[in-house]
Amino acid sequence: MKRVVLQLLRRPATATAAGFVLAIGVIAVLAPALAPYDPLTQDYARTLEGPSADHLLGTDYLGRDVLSRLVFGARVAAQASLQTVSIALLIGVPLGLIAGYRSGWWDRVMMRLLDVADAIPGLVLAFAVIAVLGTGLTNAMIAVSIIFSMNFMRLSRALALGERERLYVDAARTSGLTQRNILLRQILPNMAAPLIVQSTIFMGTALLIEAALSFLGLGLETGSASWGGMLSGSTRWQFQQPFLPWPPGLAITLTVLAFNVLGDGVRDVLAGGTRDRTPRRRPRVRARRAAAQPSLAQLPDDDVPLDVRGLSVAFPGEDGDVEVVSEVSIRVRRGEALGLVGESGSGKTMTGRAVLGILPAGGAVTAGSIHVDGAQIVGRDEAALNDVRGSRVAMVFQDPMVALSPVHTIGRQVGQAVRNHAPTLSRADVRRRCVELLEMVRIADPEARLGDYPHQFSGGMAQRIVIALALASNPSVLIADEPTTALDVTTQQEILDMLTDLKQRLGTAIVLITHDLGVVADACDRAAVMYAGQVVEEAAVDDLFAAPRHPYTRALLAAMPTGAGGDDRLPTIPGRVPPMTALAPGCRFAPRCAVRTDACDAAPVELGAGVRCLHAGAAWQAGDAAHERRSQVQ
């Protein structure tokens, strides 16, 4: 118990919640001594007063002191929570324990009865109990206890079903312990953690229900000091005294929140969780960085807005860090489009996300550098990255309907993107810029369409809007992640033509992430082929298509459909991209390669002269026929 308490105190949120709940308990016990006035004393000469020196929280419509009623209301809240949960535990846990342990017809009968009870809405059942027993706090809480006991019964049964199969229960049986001893001293203590958590959550829920019943006049007698009754009485007079609902409303909200936070903390401690106090482990950075932040000075080559060198990205795994991008180096000049191409799982999207510093949770750049317009991305905090995102580098995502907010107009979304990096622009200038952007992406009648919502656009038009958002601040680099995948062929061509026009007109450097070599041929100047997190070949598009040097590139080209027709099946690449936790020791493509030799497995292959292959050139040509035969077998 001491260990649990110490661990709870080490969690700031849990310790604060526990302190708040403890304070409510102390106030409830000492209410007569702490309250400055009798909560039932009426003073018609001082009704609906605001906070003052005499009445710190003012008075209600009968002149009663709000602070005193709030203090005595804590006693009602504590009684309601404890009474409800205690009764529910005494009813639900034993029934669930017996049903789960004994099973058989005990279990079947109890669960069928529980199913019947669950079919009746909880509040309807509470109203029925109150109608029979009458109003009052105890009667109201008995009604709520019946509802909670059903939940405790289900939870206890599920826990007992699991515990009864454990070896310590068999050992207790062989020791001659009675069934009662096994249930109460062996199984029940092992069920304590989830029951405690559920109890703390139900205490907050009981408080809410008591407040709701008092609000409806079904709880305490009229005039009694309860938070729900205070809130109910204040609604009629809130226009004359707007402050009146705030004290009971905040008391209910904060107390329920404290119970829930306390329950979460107890759950994590009893389960051995450490998420609240131990940050997610990030992969270890191989390349040591200087203590000072990298300089934002311009790179020597001002014509290269995107310069990625030796980039590696990793995620934490069960057996250590898992590297999903390995030593990727790409450079894109102004007015140039680079295609990142490869099968799914090759690391293309992670490379693009690393450039913007938006890796998924747990991911980290473990080596290399990324410069955008001379600004170093790696190692920057969020504030510094926000100065780069949008203004220097932007991204177009695959699904436009996910990238656009469905509840805001296009004009508002594009306008916000413009205003983020130009806050001094007037409203008229922002609107004028929005119209220019929509014209740039070839939206007809842009002035009228600013008031439209995303659902009023087709998929292709919505993708144009996403591109307009990305171009709002004239970025030097535009990363387009599969921008044409969800579009029909005609619309795909229109989007590609538009990107090409923007590249030429604005001088934007474009990184086009795709698995379609046809898109690369149509819209890119250079291409980098990725496989299993590595760049295996990089070349000008014309050279890549005319004379591919890597076996993987050649296999991708062979698998492309053409307009020549014919009855032959398209060649396929045997196997699949390996998981990053099970890579080949040498060349990563070797298990699927038709020209594989023992040398391919000896050691990792380095990227040299734009290709990562020991058999590039003439040696690869000799294995062409073997590759074709192997592909056709698949």
TrEMBL record:
Domain of life: Bacteria
UniProt keyword rRNA processing, yes or no: no
Membrane disposition: Multi-pass membrane protein; Peripheral membrane protein
Residues of the ABC transmembrane type-1 domain: 74-263
PROSITE patterns: ABC_TM1, ABC_TRANSPORTER_1, ABC_TRANSPORTER_2
Pfam families from the UniProt entry: ABC_tran, BPD_transp_1, oligo_HPY, OppC_N
TM segment ranges: 12-35, 80-101, 122-148
Compositional bias annotation for Basic residues: 278-289
InterPro entries membership: AAA+_ATPase, ABC_Ni/Peptide_Import, ABC_transporter-like_ATP-bd, ABC_transporter-like_CS, MetI-like, MetI-like_sf, Oligopep_ABC_C, OppC_N
Protein known as: Peptide ABC transporter ATP-binding protein
